[in-house]
Automatic annotation (TrEMBL):
PANTHER family: ABC TRANSPORTER ABCH.1 (PTHR24220:SF86), IMPORT ATP-BINDING PROTEIN (PTHR24220). The lineage of its organism: Bacteria, Pseudomonadati, Pseudomonadota, Betaproteobacteria, Nitrosomonadales. This is ABC transporter. It comes from Sulfuricella denitrificans (strain DSM 22764 / NBRC 105220 / skB26). Keywords: Antibiotic resistance, ATP-binding, Cell membrane, Membrane, Nucleotide-binding, Transmembrane, Transmembrane helix, Transport. GO terms for molecular function: ATP binding; ATP hydrolysis activity; transmembrane transporter activity. The keyword Transport applies. Pfam families: ABC_tran (PF00005). GO terms for biological process: response to antibiotic. InterPro entries: AAA+_ATPase, ABC_transporter-like_ATP-bd, ABC_transporter-like_CS, ABC_transpr_LolD-like, MacB-like_ATP-bd, P-loop_NTPase.
Length: 232
């Protein structure tokens, strides 16, 4: 394996609920190389979503170190984490998380607006994204005027418009029928084929089976890593 793009060492995450503690992640050690396609799987409450939030710098561990592209991002300030998140990480969610009042084109452009990219460059990149994702004739439509598959394509276009090196997808086919879900899987696989690291959290064994590596979570711990099985 090449140098790790993502390296988690001794990661712990504990939530306190009243007088009790819930160990959402337990001493997690994982390394993911650039360009890998990984599925994080396991039952509800196994720590999958907590892990995704941590990888996306939406949450901080209580112990351990998270290195992204060799940089320790564990102790960065909120502002520094936001900058890394904007420039290096794209998110795709089950419920799309599009802004209802914005058109497809405006939703795609939103991360670039927040990053201060000039209007002309924004327009050029949005035009390319609309073409790449087959959305040219839906550019002026709001999310409620789009099908589920079109909304997820808009979400993927928005997630990739800043040209991130990592895509984090949380149940990206969960609200889609099987045929539309397979189309979304193909889009994610194309991104991975272009060199983007893709990490998917899913309950769906079919979706998880598309990934070249599976991580099985249980009670906050990594119970199985198919990469280690292959190396055995």
């Amino acid at each position: 394996m090449s140098a790790a793009q993502i390296e988690l060492s001794g990661i712990e995450r504990v939530f306190r609920l009243g007088d009790s503690e819930v160990h959402a992640l337990r001493h997690l050690d994982v390394a993911i190389a650039p360009g890998e396609y990984v599925a994080v799987m396991g039952p509800s409450g196994s720590g999958k979503s907590t892990l995704l939030n941590l990888l996306g710098l939406l949450d901080r561990p209580d112990a351990g170190v998270y290195r992204l592209e060799g940089r320790d991002v564990t102790t960065l300030s909120p502002e520094e984490q936001a900058r890394v998140r904007s420039e290096r990480i794209g998110f795709v969610f089950q419920s799309f998380h599009l802004v209802p009042r914005l058109t497809a084109a405006e939703n795609i452009a939103l991360p670039m607006m927040l990053a201060g990219i000039p209007p002309r460059e924004r327009a050029d990149r949005v035009a390319c994204a609309l073409k790449d994702y087959g959305l040219e004739n839906r550019a002026g439509h709001r999310p409620d005027q789009l099908s589920g598959g079109q909304r997820q394509r808009v979400a993927i276009a928005r997630a990739t418009i800043m040209r991130p090196t990592v895509i984090l997808a949380d149940e990206p086919t969960g609200n889609l029928d099987r045929a539309t879900g397979e189309e979304v899987i193909r889009l994610l696989e194309q991104l991975n084929g272009s060199g983007v690291t893709v990490i998917i959290v899913t309950h769906d064994p079919v979706l998880g089976g598309h990934a070249r590596r599976q991580l099985l979570m249980e009670d906050g711990a990594l119970r199985h890593d198919s990469a280690r099985e292959g190396a055995a």
